[in-house]
Specification:
The complex is a heterodimer. Chain A is mainly beta. Chain A has four helices and 26 strands. In chain A, the strands form seven sheets. In chain A, strands 1-19-26-25-21-22 form a six-stranded mixed β-sheet, with no helix packed on it. In chain A, strands 7, 10, 12, 13 and 14 form a five-stranded antiparallel β-sheet that branches. In chain A, strands 6-5-15-11 form a four-stranded mixed β-sheet. Among the domains of chain B are: about 30 residues; about 70 residues, Orthogonal Bundle (Cytochrome Bc1 Complex, Chain D, domain 2), CATH 1.10.760.10. The chains are: A mainly beta, B mainly alpha. Chains A and B meet through strand 2 of A and helix 3 and helix 4 of B.
Amino acid sequence: MPRTGTIKASRRNVLKGVGMATVGASLPPVGAALAQGAPAAAKGPKLLEMDGKAKLAILGDKPLVAETQAELLDDDVTPTAKLFIRNNGQVPDVTGDPKAWKIKIDGEVNTPLEISVGELASRFPNVTYNLMLECGGNGRSFFSPEARGNQWTNGGAGCPQWTGVRLADVLKAAGVKPSATYTGHYGADPTLAGETDKPTISRGVPMAKAMEEHTLIAFKLNGQDIPLIHGAPVRLVVPGWPASVSTKWLKRIWVRDKEHDGPGMGGFSYRVPKTPIVPGSKGNEKDMAILESMPVRSVITFPADGTKLAAGTRKLDLRGHAWAGDYDIKTVDISTDYGVTWKTAKVNPPANKFAWQRFTASIDLPTSGYYEVWAKATDSKGVTQPFTAANWNPQGYGANPINRIRVLVES
Amino acid sequence: MTHVVVITLTTTFLLLALDRAGELGRKQYVYVPPAPKVEAPPVDPEKGKPPPHNDTVDDLPDGKGREITFYTCTACHGVALIKAQGLTRDLWDSTFDLMLEKHRMPPVKAEDRAEILTYLAEQFPPRRKGRGNDNPFLK
C-alpha cells in the first residue's frame, strides 16, 4: 500500500515567488557552465495541455514525449496526471471492450497461451505495488556534448501504484521450456509512419527479470483503468529497468531461446559503453552493452529550483526522492557548499521493493544570498552519483549526476 | 370401453407432460413494451490520444536545405525533436543511418542526404558549453 501523509514545509521557510518553477527543467548539470542554454531554454519548455494530464514539460510532440518537472514529482505516490509520457510510435485506437483484449504468450513454452485481459485478471492472483517506471534516457540532457534523443532532465520517472498479475505466474501457466533465455515484448502501437504490421519497438529482458515477482502485466494504474496514453488496457511494468521494456498496449510476449533482437535491442539503443569512449565521438557498436538496472538517482522535489526565500530565512526543510534500479538507497547526502561538506539526509524505507524512497533534510542557510543545494544518493551496493554525467554515449543513457537546485535568500 | 381407457390414459399423460413442461402453470401474458434501444456509446477511437499537432516549414530556422529537411524528417516525427539536438556532422550522419535502419525511413538520394546533413550540421551543432565541448581527442 502507498505511504500517505505529506511532509509539511517548515514554518520557518517562508517561500515566496516560486515563479521560476520551470527553470528546473533546463538546469544544467554540475560541472557545466551556468551561463549556458539555447534561447528556447530561457523561455522554459512548452507545457502539455491534455485531458487527465498535468502541465508536463513537452520534449517532443510527434511522438508525444513529456517529462515531469522535479517539483511535480513530490507526491509519495505519483498521481496518474503527473506520470511522464514516452511514445515511440503512434498511439493505437481505444479498444471497445478492454476485457476482451487478448495477449499471446508463445515461443519457448509448452502451451502457448492466448488470454484475454478479463481471464488474466480472474485466473491469476492480483497484486498491487508502488513501482518505479523510468525512461532509459532519463538524465540525457546532462551530457556534454549533447547526446542524441529526447533531452530529459530527471523527469522521465515516476512511482505510481500498479495493479496486475505477475508475469511469472502467466509464464509458468504456459510452461517455460529449459531453452527459454529472454523475452520479446510487442505492443499495438503503430509505427510513426503508420504501419501496424511492424513493431515500433520490441525489447525484452532475461528470464530471471521476467520471473521476478514485481514484474507485472498491469491493468490498473493508481486503482483506475490505465489511460490510453499509458498503455490501456494492459501493459508490462518491469520496474527498475529502462521503461522501454515495460511495453504499453501489450499484445504478445515471445519467449526466446536467445537474446531478443527486436527493434531497440541492438546498435546504440539502450546500451552503454563497456569501456569509456571519447565524448562526442561516433563510438563502436561492438563496445556497447545493454543497459539493465537503471543507475542511482536523487531528485529534490521541494523546494523548486529557483525559489526565493524571504529575508531572514536561516533553515530550509527540503525533501525529495531517490531510487536505484534493482537496488535500494543506502544514504542521501546534501551539500550547500558545492560538495565541500556533506550532511546526511533522513531516508525512509521504500513502500515495497522497486519503489522510490523519500529523503528529508533540514539545512542551515547561515546568511542571505545565493545557494546551490546538492543531493547525492548512494545505493545498497555503495555506488553513488557522479559529479557530472559520466560514460558519455551517442544515444545518451545512464546520465545520473548529482542533483542540484538553486535558491536565493533575500537580503 | 377400450376407447374410454385409451382416451383417459392419453389425456392423463398429456396433462402430466404439459404440467411438467410448465405449460399449465404459465401465467397470463403480460404486455412488456419493447425495451428502448440502448445505443452502445460510440467508442471514439481518438479519445485519450495526444492533442493534434502540426509543424510547418517555418518552424525550422531558415537556411539552405530547410525545405527538403522538413519534408524528409517530419514525414514521421516532429520538428521539436530535431531542434532539441546538437550534434556534429558525424553524429548527424549516424542519426541518418539510425532512421534508415531502425525506423525504416524510405531511402533518400545521396545528394539529398548530403544537403540535409549540411543543413542539420550547420543549424544544430553541439552548443552546450561545458567541460565536454573541447575534447582534445575529438577530431
